[in-house]
Amino acid sequence: MRKVITGIFFLIIAASCSFDYGEMDSPDRELPDLVMENVEYVRVRSADPIARIHAERAERYERQGLMKLDNFSFEQYGDRGQSVNVYGRAGRAEVEIDSGNILMDGGVWLDVESEDIIMETDQLNWIDDQRILSSGEGDTVNIQQQNGTSFEGATLRADTRRRSWEFLGAVTGTYVEDDED
């Protein structure tokens, strides 16, 4: 009799429980289509490597056209894959698969060897078709060069095609002019 009462008690408790899984088709609650850990990805064009990406975790969302990366680093190659031109790392990134646009945040560090620039900030946004690199509005960006030049400014916008850089907010720093002998 005691086992029957215990069994009925558990049935009543189980029947009174409900789970709300939310709307399964909701895009903001979508599960990734693919999850990978310790990923290394090499992007190749015409048999030459153009970039190498490493991430602790990568999640691909087909319907949203997104790849989310955690603790990632990358190298961008020049000279038909013979040399590394840019090194970078960030805590997180969202890559728009079709456009190639990338939002990096969680502490971003870039070393652009061809320009002798090291850049540090909290967030950077890359618009691939326009070749524009920008920080978040009001975000402080630190830029340093080996010759001692260093700048700190708010709201960076860089047009890499035109090789122009501008801060839309306050800027402080030191510019060191190289001697041309």
List its traits.
single chain; mainly beta; twelve-stranded antiparallel β-sheet; 1 helix; 12 strands; disordered N terminus
Distance between the termini: 102 Å
Task: Write down the secondary-structure element order.
Answer: HEEEEEEEEEEEE
CATH H-level superfamily: Lipopolysaccharide (LPS) transport protein A like domain
Question: Helicity range of the residues?
Answer: under 10%
CATH topology description: lipopolysaccharide transport protein A fold
Describe what you observe in this structure:
- The chain has 181 residues and is mostly beta strands.
- The protein has a single domain, classed as lipopolysaccharide transport protein A fold (Sandwich).
- The protein has 1 helix and 12 strands, in the order H-E-E-E-E-E-E-E-E-E-E-E-E.
- Strands 1, 2, 3, 4, 5, 6, 7, 8, 9, 10, 11 and 12 form a 12-stranded antiparallel sheet that branches.
- Strand 1 (34-45) and strand 2 form a beta hairpin.
- Residues 2-22 have low confidence and may be disordered.
Explain the layout of strands and helices.
Elements: H1 2-16, E1 34-45, E2 48-61, E3 66-78, E4 83-96, E5 102-112, E6 117-127, E7 132-135, E8 140-144, E9 150-154, E10 156-159, E11 164-167, E12 171-174
Care to give the gist of this entry?
The protein has one helix and twelve strands, in the order αββββββββββββ. The chain has one helix spanning 2-16; strands spanning 34-45, 48-61, 66-78, 83-96, 102-112, 117-127, 132-135, 140-144, 150-154, 156-159, 164-167, 171-174.
